[in-house]
Design brief:
The chain has helices at 4-31, 54-73, 90-114, 122-141, 149-174, 179-203, 224-260, 263-277; strands at 80-81, 84-85, 212-215, 218-221. The protein starts with a helix and ends with a helix. With 278 residues, the chain is mainly alpha-helical. It has a two-stranded antiparallel sheet with strand order 1-2. A two-stranded antiparallel sheet has the order 3-4. The protein has one domain. The relative contact order is 0.14. The longest helix has 37 residues, at 224-260. Helices cover 71% and strands 4% of the residues. It is found in: Membrane. Keywords: Membrane, Transmembrane, Transmembrane helix. Belongs to the TMEM45 family.
Length: 278
């Protein structure tokens, strides 16, 4: 069983990285569509280059801190019982393994970008990121904690979003000049972060569906009808998040095109206006 903080912390990391990925992709495409290339991470401009690698530091440091919380704080350093891994903290060990993969990705990307010891092309970094998402997918799909009912459905939807992240990052390696692929990757990461938050507020916060409750570290509903209502509510919540993100992306692209737009982007609007007038 998870907790509110256990979902909110990784949700914050995914949300921040995802939103930045979307904005960076929009600006880079609007600035020069012909030279656009997929980036698994995006440098922060300005500040004399001091914040260039901020995204990678957020990924590596954030994953490391969260991993330490899961592995050291949550387990109370009781790793073994009678010579075997503590069965009561298998959940924490699994989360730590997933976070370790994102820490490894962030560290490898930093080494590749800042040193000469590990020069890797962007396509290789995409595949490494896909590996980290695969570890996350396997964690939630084969979780040691049996998720059933409403709790299981929220985690099933999370697994689908993680699978979308895997697909997008692999496509980024195969289609390195595709703007839709890069944009979809940012959208998928953002939705994953938002769904972590939605799960936290619904299962462990004030948005628990009517007729369901968190008791003895389990989410249970008073009747089958109440559970079905909760499942339908989850579908509506996911639809609302997808719609909200898509609307935000369209608005952000309009702003990016007007502020940073390349002449070729503006010409698209000119041609479209002429066609509309005809």
């Amino acid at each position: 069983m998870g907790s509110f903080k256990g979902h909110a912390l990784p949700g914050t990391l995914f949300l921040v990285v995802g939103v930045w990925h979307i904005w960076s992709a929009l600006v880079r495409y609007a600035s020069n569509p012909k030279s656009f290339r997929v980036r698994v991470w995006s440098p922060v401009p300005g500040f004399d280059g001091k914040l260039k690698y901020l995204e990678l530091y957020i990924i590596a440091v954030g994953a490391f801190i969260d991993m330490c919380i899961e592995l050291l704080y949550s387990t109370h350093l009781k790793f073994f019982v009678d010579g075997v891994l503590n069965p009561s903290h298998m959940n924490d060990f699994e989360h730590s393994g997933m976070l370790l993969m994102f820490f490894v990705f962030g560290s490898i990307a930093l080494l590749s970008e800042k040193t000469r010891f590990l020069p890797l092309p962007e396509e290789a970094l995409c595949l490494i990121a896909a590996t980290a998402f695969c570890a996350e997918y396997l964690l939630f799909y084969f979780h040691s904690t049996t998720h059933k009912g409403l709790e299981g459905y929220y985690h099933l939807l999370l697994v689908l979003l993680v699978g979308l992240c895997i697909l997008c990052t692999i496509c980024g390696a195969l289609l390195p000049t595709s703007f839709p692929v890069d944009l979809c990757c940012g959208i998928a990461i953002t939705l994953q972060g938002l769904w972590f938050y939605q799960t936290a507020f619904t299962l462990y916060g004030p948005m628990m569906p009517d007729g369901c409750q968190l008791k003895d570290s389990k989410v249970s509903c008073h009747s089958k009808d109440k559970e079905i209502r909760g499942l339908l509510l989850a579908n509506f919540q996911l639809f609302s998040l997808v719609l909200g993100v898509l609307v935000a992306v369209v608005v952000a692209y309009g702003y990016a095109a007007s502020k940073f737009g390349h002449s070729s982007v503006r010409s698209l609007y000119t041609v479209q206006d002429e066609l509309d007038q005809d």
